[in-house]
Amino acid sequence: MIKVEGLTKRYARTVAVDDISFEVEKGQIVGFLGPNGAGKTTTMRVLTCFLPPTAGKATICGFDVLENPQEVKKRIGYLPETPPLYPEMEVIEYLTFVGQIKGIPSADIKRRADEVIGRCALGDVRSKLIGKLSKGFRQRVGIAQAIIHNPDVLILDEPTSGLDPKQIIEIRELLKALSGEHTIILSTHILSEVEQSCERVIIISQGKLVAQDSVANLTNRLRGSEAVSLEVESADGHPNPTEVQGRLEQVSGVSRVMMKDSKGGRLSFEVESLQGRHIRAELARSVVNSGWNLSELRAVGLSLEDIFLQLTTVETKEDTKEEGGQR
Amino acid sequence: MRNILLICKKELKSYFASPIAYLLMAFFGLIFGFGFFTATRDFVRFSFQSQMMGQQQPMNVNDQIIRPLLGFASTIALFLVPMISMRLIAEEKRTGTIELLLTSPIRDIEIILGKWLGAVVLFLCVLGMSMLDVAMLFAWGKPDLKPVLIAYLGLILQGACLLAIGTFISTTTRNQIVAGGVTFFVCLLLWLLSWFTAFDSGPASQVVNYISIVTHFENFSKGVLDSKDVVFYLSMIFFSLFITSRAMESVRWRS
Ligand SMILES: Nc1ncnc2c1ncn2[C@@H]1O[C@H](COP(=O)(O)OP(=O)(O)O)[C@@H](O)[C@H]1O
Ligand SMILES: [Mg+2]
After folding, report:
1. What pLDDT was estimated at residue A321?
2. Structural domains in chain B (count)
3. What residue of B is the nearest CA neighbor of A145?
4. Average pLDDT over residues A194-198
5. Of B7, B18, B96, which is closest to A80 when you measure between CB atoms?
6. Using the beta-carbon criterion (under 8 Å), do A84 and B255 form an inter-chain contact?
7. What is the pTM of this model?
8. N or C: which end of chain B has fewer CB within 10 A?
């Protein structure tokens, strides 16, 4: 459904998105997680054809954002960071207008508008001026405008930011209900948000993709596990990768082993521990006992953990700060 | 085409949802009405005097009331245009609704044309206020219709042209006050240029005269319909809207 390859977006001074690649399958609901300034909004703006990429490729339903923007735009619903609302319009008037510019045939517009009004529980404010609505209602009008043309892909930029807890729950329920029919990408800088509403998560930080995994796996990896990078050589210069990997996996406390590289008879792995386990000593012993040489062993950057910390602690600070989406 | 009309309709709705449309119409109606009142009063007084003195100078409603009045209207238009065009795109950039428009399956040029058209229609509504007064002249006097129509055509073309320039300026900023200010400055400059060149006929001032949007109105106000002037206005409109679409592209590239 969504395919991003080597996407880079450079502004005059900053590289906002740096060589990001990921894929989203049909029907998935994916969280795009990263602290403020990570490049979430920028990536979404590229996906919605609002900004052209500096390098790389992004396709939606097989259509390239640069070569076929009109086709892409027909298939996406987009809720920007600030909902794009006209305060002088009534809700129904606004939804009708959006339906029209999204290309819904005139005969269907009224039906579609009524449908999304029902779905987003906007019945009570149907003929109210948007400018007079509360923040929660505005957000729902924003979501309603994103789904009015029944797009294949929904792109939602921080759909719950700035709402109170009750409104957040309402929006989450709405997203759950929508996830059956649409492929959804939603961005957030709050980890618990992803845990609540998403199946998969893509983490970016400072424009770089840090991790992508299922939510269940990732939360395990995040919560107090240790990541170790090690390089193994064998005496005969030809270690057997599967054998080494198998041996490493047997070490107690190891949750997963990923082979990173193999060059000149030297294999490098990244090993993660289970929650709260220290595995470096065990790993070293296991390698040496098997008759291989351990040429390197170090704890890797803990980048996930750093970001995790940022994501869980920065939250309160972010919410008081004016978010810099539109520059 | 459907999309252009959609955007145009939306623009008109928001003009008329805020007081701005009514304020401009009232403002123009009052000023024009005042001009109308003075001009007719003087006209009546003069024709009365000349009859008293037994002179048989022909008094002409067209030349003595309508022409100066519509000339006056073209000057007021210079002040109206910035107030109409300033919010067109700047406001959408400020509130972020531009993201809705630019991520919808409509083309940039349709957005621009729709917005410009909306502004032109509002301008017509404002200009329409003057027709109440002019209609009165037709009710009581016997002015020639043709030069009046030509002068109105000139007013509309000049307004449409200035609005196209205003649309471009509104695309370059997210602050509608700045857009209005710059547009006003440009209108003022054009107006001043037409004054300066009136006293000079060197080659430089001829060039300035040609590009000055205001001087092309002169012929129209005299009741002369010259295709050169029409072509000038149309090509200026085309050019301005074209550079607006380029500017819109750079909104994407830089924003
Ligand atoms: N229009 C812009 N011009 C220049 N830099 C920008 C612009 N928009 C965003 N940036 C920069 O790009 C980086 C990523 O921003 P953004 O995509 O908004 O992050 P996020 O949505 O994850 O908070 C930030 O460092 C930000 O300052
Ligand atoms: Mg953002």
Report:
1. 42
2. 1
3. B100
4. 82
5. B96
6. no
7. 0.82
8. N
Domain that holds residue B99: 2-254
The token pair that represents B34 in the structure block: 């005042």
Give the environment of ion ligand 2: residues with CB less than 5 A: A 40-41, 325
- Mutational test site, ligand 1, from A14, A17, A157, A318, max ligand atoms within 8 Å of CB: A14
Asked if residue B54 has pLDDT above 80, the reply is no
Q: Is A81 in the B-facing interface, judged by CB distances under 8 Å?
A: yes
The count of CB pairs under 8 A between chains A and B is 73
What is the per-residue DSSP string for A130-182? Answer: GGGS-HHHHHHHHHHHHHTT--SEEEEESTTTT--HHHHHHHHHHHHHHTTTS
- Beta bridge mates, A90: A129
Which domains, and CATH codes, for chain A?
2-215 (3.40.50.300), 225-301 (3.30.70.3190)
A217 compared with B235, residue with greater pLDDT = B235
Q: Cβ contacts (< 8 Å) between B14 and chain A: which residues?
A: 86, 88-89
What is the interface pTM, i.e. ipTM, of the complex? 0.88
**C-alpha distances in angstroms, A273 versus A124, A247, A270, B16?**
52, 15, 10, 65
Ligand 1 atom closest to Cα of residue A325: 18
Q: Is the pLDDT of residue A146 over 90?
A: yes
Contact list in A for residue B96 (CB cut-off 8 A) is 80-82, 84, 325-326
pLDDT at A221 over 70: no
Contacts of B17 in chain A (CB under 8 A): 88-89
Q: Per residue in B16-33, pLDDT tens?
A: 998 999 999 999 999 998
Tokens of A307: 């970001």
Q: Is the pLDDT reported for residue A305 higher than 60?
A: no
